[in-house]
Amino acid sequence: MRLKPLHAMQGLQWVRQGLGTFRKKPLVLVGLFFLYMGLTSAAQLVPVVGPFLPALLAPFVMLSFHVAVHQVLAQENAQMPLILGGVFTACKQQAGTMLLLGVLYAVPFAGILLLSRQFNPELFELYVLGQSYTPDELMALLSTASFQRTFLLVTVLNVVLLLIFWPAPALVHWNGLAPVKSLVFSAVSFVRNLPHFALYLLAWVGLTLLIAPLSAALMGVAGPLAGALLGQLLMALFVTTQHFTYRDCFVDAEDAEDASI
């Protein structure tokens, strides 16, 4: 396995490539995202372990978008049944390895949540224990500096964890790497290409800030649901770009046997 050299503005290119791919098949990609959102929302209802089950399912989401984007790029005229069929086939073939990756993802994810408890127990109680608050109590909690700092810390750590794991399902599926080995290569790629990933994240922060006024306007006209839907659409765009961080960082699957890191 060999890492590809990247040009200086590659992080911005990942965002552009993802947006361009999304425009080709928006209904398929949005539908796939909302399918997994429904599954993870249902999983969170399970007592005690519910908040951690979305982390267990995360590699299936990553693999699904890798396969979907790959098919859109390979066949621009591919219809939804073909794309979704490829996604479900890949997930079925790799179910065992994706579950193992899910466990490996869930462990540090749980560690981040436990770490948050040391800084702000209310955040942990709200997300993990489902602590209920009145609207006034919740607004007061969200406005505290301690909650905001802890939320920012948890968000940054989870984004880093996500970026490290992103290529792993694709490396397992197309390059035939074992789950643990795929994570090693993913982590090496992230560290070596840290400036590119930093630029990539900055581009997404800028895009989010540009969309924020539109979200506020929609919420003012159509209510909170419209703003939430726009946020989910942005997340669907975000995960669409993940395939390019794999495709551009590693050698093609057919060359993997002859390459070395």
* Helix/strand class: mainly alpha
Percent of residues in helices: over 70%
What is the H/E string?
A: HHHHHHHHHHHHH
DSSP, total strands: 0
Oligomer: single chain
Mean pLDDT: 84
Largest sheet: none
- Give the distance, in angstroms, between the N- and C-terminal Cα atoms: 5 Å
Radius of gyration: 19 Å
Low-confidence stretches: 255-261
Shape: globular
Short description:
With 261 residues, the protein is mainly alpha-helical. The chain contains 13 helices and no strands.
Name its key features.
single chain, 261 residues, mainly alpha, globular, disordered C terminus
Compile the SSE list and pairings:
Elements: H1 10-24, H2 26-43, H3 53-74, H4 80-93, H5 95-119, H6 121-127, H7 135-142, H8 145-165, H9 168-175, H10 179-192, H11 194-222, H12 224-240, H13 242-247
Helix pairs in contact: 1-11, 1-12, 2-3, 2-12, 3-4, 3-5, 3-9, 5-6, 5-8, 9-10, 11-12
Describe the overall structure.
The chain has 261 residues and is mainly α. It has 13 helices and no strands. The protein has helices at residues 10-24, 26-43, 53-74, 80-93, 95-119, 121-127, 135-142, 145-165, 168-175, 179-192, 194-222, 224-240, 242-247. Helix 1 packs across helix 12 (224-240), helix 2 (26-43) crosses helix 12 (224-240) and helix 3 crosses helix 4 (80-93). The longest helix is centred in the last third of the chain and has 29 residues, at 194-222. It is globular and about 50 Å long. The N and C termini lie close together (5 Å). 30% of the residues are buried. Residues 255-261 have low confidence and may be disordered.
